[in-house]
Amino acid sequence: MYLANTLYLIPTEQKWLLGVLNCSLTFWFYTQLSPQIRGGFVRFIAQYVSQIPIPNASEEQKQTIETLVQKCLEAKGQNCQQWEKEIDQIVYQLYDLTPAEIALIEKSPPY
Fold first, then answer.
1. Dihedral sign of CA atoms 109, 27, 60, 65 in order
2. 89 and 20 in contact (C-beta within 8 Å)?
């Protein structure tokens, strides 16, 4: 494989981290950091991605997120909304969000 452009990489196989980085809260947080480009899209650039705080999680929480992520991967992203919502709920707990904070994130435009 050859790259034609810049590549940013997180060298890990931890699927729970994939779940955290792709959840609604992380996207909402990222839109607060990164400038948006035409159409409301964001570009994942190292200087912004490096500011995303990764929460501490117990082994049980990590395993639960990994199981949900694996289900989404096996389904190739089709009909994963329920599993994604479950990941969101776990991540909200990891960051100790209040109901008001969760409502703010959930009423934001979807990505």
1. positive
2. no
